[in-house]
Design goal:
This protein is of the alpha+beta class. The chain contains 15 helices and 8 strands. The protein folds into 2 domains: 2-215, Hypothetical protein, domain 2 (Endonuclease III, domain 1, Orthogonal Bundle); 226-348, Nucleoside Triphosphate Pyrophosphohydrolase.
Length: 356
């Protein structure tokens, strides 16, 4: 495998991208970048990295920030548990490590939201510790090149890929090795239609030689999406509207939304206007119907959201009970919403984003 890693190192020297977290050994910056890049491509994640580091330049600033500040900074990136765990981890570092990012794999792994991959990446890149990463990019490269036929999302498959990644790790320069492996998977050995004819590894690649590139890595578990029917009620007048903060252990926790009615089936328009949430608003203060939006579909990893927005015009507001609040329409941009709701807000209520 020495020839394999040598070819990847040479490729990395010539083809690697200039990225800000590669210009520092600051474990905080590396941790932020690795967390953002979980489930997120570099092109999408890069502006969020700059925004996050600008707003929270060190771990103390993140630990001291409010939940709303963190969620607003993360707004639109998705997988919001990442942001919540980062803030929890930051508070742990401040409280238990005197504000110094832990410098051992074992202590990094104890931080909220940090798994073996992120711990290995931070430990190797920031501290030069010999821990191999095995993210999706690395797993794909190893599966194809080495001919790993075991399903990589099973315990046996994960064990094989982890052992293979450990075996080829260069302990003298683990940070460089890990970045080269991840970059090769991200740019060259891509999931669909890789340019195998021009790949520097094709001579020794099992998948290429056996025409199995499109079938490796093998995965046993297919993702099935649950369909959810969400109906958001926008109670508004010319100046104000009612929003509420999501609580509980569900999607979009700690983000804001409009008052919600969730159904186990798609509602007719009569049902949309006669369910308990709608009746609550219609009866409390006389309201008139402005709009029932068409269905908007939003895809998540394990869920498909089918949402409709119902706009109700009312003459005035009384102060609602928590978690609801009355906000000025001109200040709606200050709150963090899921992308699905944020897009509707921009279409209906915001002509130009005050932050742009």
């Amino acid at each position: 495998m020495q020839e394999f890693t040598g070819l990847i190192y040479n490729w990395f020297e010539l083809c690697r991208r200039d990225l800000p977290w590669r210009e520092t050994s600051d474990p905080y910056h590396i941790w932020v970048s690795e967390t953002i890049l979980q489930q997120t491509q570099v092109k999408q994640g890069l502006p969020y990295y700059y925004r996050f580091i600008s707003r929270f330049p060190d771990i103390k600033a993140l630990a001291e920030a409010s939940d709303d500040e963190v969620m607003k900074t993360w707004e639109g990136l998705g997988y919001y548990s990442r942001a919540r765990n980062m803030q929890k981890a930051a508070k742990t570092v401040v409280d238990k490590h005197n504000g110094r990012f832990p410098d051992t794999y074992e202590e990094i792994l104890k931080l909220a939201g940090v798994g073996p991959y992120t711990a290995a990446a931070v430990a190797s890149i920031a501290f030069g510790l010999p821990f191999a990463v095995a993210d999706g990019n690395v797993i794909r490269v190893l599966s194809r090149y080495c001919g790993i036929l075991e399903a990589v999302d099973t315990p046996a498959g994960r064990k094989i890929t982890a052992e293979t990644a450990d075996k080829i790790l260069d302990p003298s320069n683990p940070g460089f090795h890990n970045q080269a492996m991840m970059e090769f998977g991200a740019l060259c050995c891509i999931p669909r239609n890789p340019d195998c004819l021009n790949c520097p590894l094709n001579a020794g690649c099992y998948a290429f030689s056996n025409q199995l590139t499109g079938k490796l890595p093998v995965k046993a578990n297919r993702i099935t999406r649950k369909v959810r029917y969400l109906y958001f009620y926008i109670s508004e007048n010319d100046e104000d509207m009612i929003i509420e903060k999501r609580t509980g252990n569900d999607i979009w926790k700690n983000l804001y939304q409009f008052p919600l009615y969730e159904s186990d089936h798609e509602l007719s328009e009569i049902e949309i206007l006669t369910n308990p949430v709608c009746e609550e608003f219609m009866q409390a203060i006389p309201s008139s119907l402005l709009e029932i939006s068409p269905v908007r579909i939003h895809e998540l990893t394990h869920q498909q959201i089918r949402a409709r927005f119902v706009r109700l015009c009312r003459s005035n507001f009384h102060l609602p009970e928590d978690p609801r609040k009355v906000v000025r329409k001109e200040e709606i941009h200050k709150f963090a919403f899921p992308v699905l709701i944020r897009n509707f807000i921009h279409e209906k209520f915001i002509r130009a984003d005050p932050e742009e």
